[in-house]
Amino acid sequence: MLNYLRHRFALSEKGAKDLVKAFGACTVYDISLMLPVSLLYLFVSDLLSGGVSAGRGGLYLAGCLACLVVIGVTTYWQYNATYLSTYVESGVRRVTLAERLRKLPLSFFGKKDLSDLTSTIMADCAKLETATSHWIAELAGAIVSTTLIAVSLFFFDWRMALAALWVLPVAFLITACSSGVQLALSRKQMAAMMACADGIQECLESVRDLKANNAEDAYLAGLDVKIKAVEKRAIISELGTAVFVVSAQMILKLGIATVALVGGLLLANGTLSVLTFFMFLLLVSRLYDPMQLALQNLAAILSTNIQCQRMDEILSHPVQTGAERLTNQGCDIVFDHVGFAYNGNEQVLRDVSFTAKQGEVTALIGPSGGGKTTVSRLAARFWDITCGTITVGGMDVSRTDPEVLMGLYSIVFQDVTLFNNSVLENIRIGKKDASDAEVVAAAKLAHCDEFVEKLPQGYETFIGENGSQLSGGERQRISIARAFLKDAPIILLDEATASLDAENETLIQEALSRLIADKTVLIIAHRMRTVSGADKIVVLDGGQIAQSGAPAELAQQDGLYRHMMDLQQQSGAWRM
Ligand SMILES: Nc1ncnc2c1ncn2[C@@H]1O[C@H](COP(=O)(O)OP(=O)(O)OP(=O)(O)O)[C@@H](O)[C@H]1O
């Protein structure tokens, strides 16, 4: 049972145990609500059989107080067992998902978009939170307590019990039969919501380009269609659920009518006492309350299947694992007959073999789409390769834990990611335990101090979401400062100086040459000027190595390298 609950509702072991406790609490709470009815039954029975004495009256008063206390205690217990433990479990679920996401390979993120993942962690978790706190335990409690009460009704009068209870299986059957329809409706509603969330996120991310191209109206019209689709799907889904739930609830109401009808007939032919009739009328008015709620809940619980499946996709996706200890001897990077395809589709790299030696600068060049970025990222195990091996100092990267491996790398990407935090903290990402003095020293090496001095609070200035208050060159200098601070033995540079003006570029290149001394450097560069000082050039074309060797050597050959040099020279001479 615990295993079923864990799997069905994406719960931790403790969460599943807490849910079982909540079932118990809800059952006791539902039964406690019947206590006043029993007391009333006894009171009326006394009244009909000759009146209530003062002593018995005091007893009934004490009984009322006892009912109040029992209901109060069970309400408190039920609240703690269902709500409080659910909120704790919800936190655990979100952290588990986030931890798993942290360990998943980038190939997973290629298949999933950001809004989808955000929605799983926030909206799906919230729905499951409501399901476990409000619906599941209450449903289980209602079923158990109603069954117990139903059994006891048969002891009073089986004919009246049948009249009161025939509606329960029918109502349940209607709701259960609707599960297929409801699941299909929920799936469609979720798809519409995801498409809409995607559209909104894309719109916000590309608002600058949309404005620049005067394409806002056309884009917003498309978005409008998606928003309307969500509205339509929500109405259809709501209607679909309502048809079944309302039908089931109406059937339940028929129970009161049949109790009145059958009771009236039995009373008329003298085979039922007035007291039993009165008690059944009292009971049925209370008996169906938890069931009505439960039926509504049943429909909602059935639809949580989708949320659980979406979480399962994250939780069951294989993570990148490996040795948690570095065993590399030196930091030579060796690609040996490497093949790679993104998401198992078309091969992007074929039979790539080369060595990037420690203490040397190895430059990756070639036409756009040739595979330069892919090669540099595979060196740091951003993805797992499909064939061949990549080693660092003899250590197979695919057998090393990615987080441990990352300790060997400083990476400066073309697209720098910055956080809405101070300049100081943005640079400290490179080395979490670095002192302020170390951070400032790294910033100075990357020539950040020139622009930081002009910021209102210097290094303490917040730089906006993704560094929106900084220029492209300034953002890149922060990224270079992070690499200085980390001071790892392998440096991956992806066109690191692309957004800098000529003056800054020279300064940064000076600093970079200090940073890369004695390190393994893999640099991606489009400009031939950047790579002329490299020790080795690897020319990638169509995912294969077209040429490799020292720049002077390649300049002698009639190949892609010389062709690119010539083209660069021609474009250098170009004037407006
Ligand atoms: N995340 C991805 N998912 C699927 N295909 C990708 C992905 N990233 C790159 N590709 C494809 O892999 C091939 C190599 O891309 P890569 O970015 O490595 O080339 P590049 O030489 O760095 O190009 P550029 O010089 O334009 O940056 C291209 O055909 C590209 O479309």
Automatic annotation (TrEMBL):
<dbReference type="GO" id="GO:0005524">
    <property type="term" value="F:ATP binding"/>
</dbReference>
<feature type="transmembrane region" description="Helical">
    <location>
        <begin position="59"/>
        <end position="77"/>
    </location>
</feature>
<feature type="transmembrane region" description="Helical">
    <location>
        <begin position="20"/>
        <end position="44"/>
    </location>
</feature>
<dbReference type="Pfam" id="PF00005">
    <property type="entry name" value="ABC_tran"/>
</dbReference>
<dbReference type="Pfam" id="PF00664">
    <property type="entry name" value="ABC_membrane"/>
</dbReference>
<dbReference type="GO" id="GO:0016887">
    <property type="term" value="F:ATP hydrolysis activity"/>
</dbReference>
<dbReference type="InterPro" id="IPR036640">
    <property type="entry name" value="ABC1_TM_sf"/>
</dbReference>
<keyword id="KW-0812">Transmembrane</keyword>
<feature type="transmembrane region" description="Helical">
    <location>
        <begin position="162"/>
        <end position="185"/>
    </location>
</feature>
<dbReference type="GO" id="GO:0005886">
    <property type="term" value="C:plasma membrane"/>
</dbReference>
<feature type="transmembrane region" description="Helical">
    <location>
        <begin position="135"/>
        <end position="156"/>
    </location>
</feature>
<keyword id="KW-0547">Nucleotide-binding</keyword>
<dbReference type="InterPro" id="IPR017871">
    <property type="entry name" value="ABC_transporter-like_CS"/>
</dbReference>
<keyword id="KW-0472">Membrane</keyword>
<dbReference type="GO" id="GO:0034040">
    <property type="term" value="F:ATPase-coupled lipid transmembrane transporter activity"/>
</dbReference>
<feature type="domain" description="ABC transmembrane type-1">
    <location>
        <begin position="33"/>
        <end position="303"/>
    </location>
</feature>
<keyword id="KW-1133">Transmembrane helix</keyword>
<dbReference type="InterPro" id="IPR027417">
    <property type="entry name" value="P-loop_NTPase"/>
</dbReference>
<feature type="transmembrane region" description="Helical">
    <location>
        <begin position="258"/>
        <end position="284"/>
    </location>
</feature>
<dbReference type="InterPro" id="IPR011527">
    <property type="entry name" value="ABC1_TM_dom"/>
</dbReference>
<keyword id="KW-0813">Transport</keyword>
<keyword id="KW-0067">ATP-binding</keyword>
<feature type="transmembrane region" description="Helical">
    <location>
        <begin position="234"/>
        <end position="252"/>
    </location>
</feature>
<protein>
    <submittedName>
        <fullName>ABC transporter ATP-binding protein</fullName>
    </submittedName>
</protein>
<dbReference type="InterPro" id="IPR003439">
    <property type="entry name" value="ABC_transporter-like_ATP-bd"/>
</dbReference>
<dbReference type="InterPro" id="IPR003593">
    <property type="entry name" value="AAA+_ATPase"/>
</dbReference>
<dbReference type="InterPro" id="IPR039421">
    <property type="entry name" value="Type_1_exporter"/>
</dbReference>
<dbReference type="GO" id="GO:0140359">
    <property type="term" value="F:ABC-type transporter activity"/>
</dbReference>
<feature type="domain" description="ABC transporter">
    <location>
        <begin position="333"/>
        <end position="567"/>
    </location>
</feature>
<keyword id="KW-1003">Cell membrane</keyword>
